[in-house]
Amino acid sequence: MFARHALRAAQPLRTQTRRYATEPSSGGSNTAIYGGVAAVLAGAGYYFYSQGDNAAKVKGAAKDAEAKAKDAVGAAKSKVEGASAKPAFTGGDQGFISLKLDSVENINHNTKKFRFELPEGDQVSGLHVASALLTKYKGPGMEKPAIRPYTPVNDEGDKGYLDLLVKKYPNGVMSTHMHDMVPGQSLDFKGPIPKYQWSANKHTHIALIAGGTGITPMYQVARAIFNNPEDKTKVTMVFANVTEEDILLKKELYELENKYPQRFRAFYVLDKPPAKWSGNSGYITKELLKTVLPEPKEENIKIFVCGPPPLYKAISGVKKSPSDQGELDGSYLEQLGYKKDQVYKF
Fold it and tell me: pLDDT digits over 301-313, tens only?
């Protein structure tokens, strides 16, 4: 449905600032992290005690700071463990491997989350950021198998499983087959299929423009950034859907907004918003992008785009093939002054 309702004008936007407060840098060691906690606690103690005898508030501030420090340490530990674990997918000549479906969760009226077991419980997927997996299915009467790419939505360091978000399309052979699957059945996978190679602080500011299930590779990049305490990249996301129910990974995205308000900004656009919708209505427009994206003259920025064909055509120009990004071709981004090398189309 999103493809049929391509890109009508959005309602007037409230003025949004392009400025982000700079966050203090942090080291990768526990000593540096807890040193930062000590500084936070000292500042909290001065403030609260300067207001009077307020030991309870100081204790609460200390607890919050300690929790954030432990989150950072846990993320770093998971990264190290994931890097040293055995990968299930190694690419090259490995070919397709069969994974058993462990569970299915209904997300909304046309989307489900599928958890597949990796061959061994202590294995990680082997995917890097950003990359995807190919799925293969050949049903009765099919001359050729259906092969479709999907980007898992769980952490690359998770052991023993991978999660896929799959939207069912009316004529989608693979999505229909997967929605008909039940736990215990198997599906063939191959990968990883490399996309955009990410490394910490590769860009100072990135924008993620997504429609529908095009959010999955965007979330993979954002998750990698915010799971790494050393990565200080700023992220602006523009996410278009038909209804509020269609917003996938809503909880996860809201958590990023709340946890990193100075570095992660999200703008939601709905074709059919509810009565009390406070976001943008209609479709992604040039005016919206001009307002919220990093300016093209800024150094070291990148704009990522992923969604249905009409979204590509209007916003970034179509992608010609897996090896050819194509031109911006009169799209909104070209009209706003962005260059081809500043844009990546998933």
Answer: 999 999 999 999 9
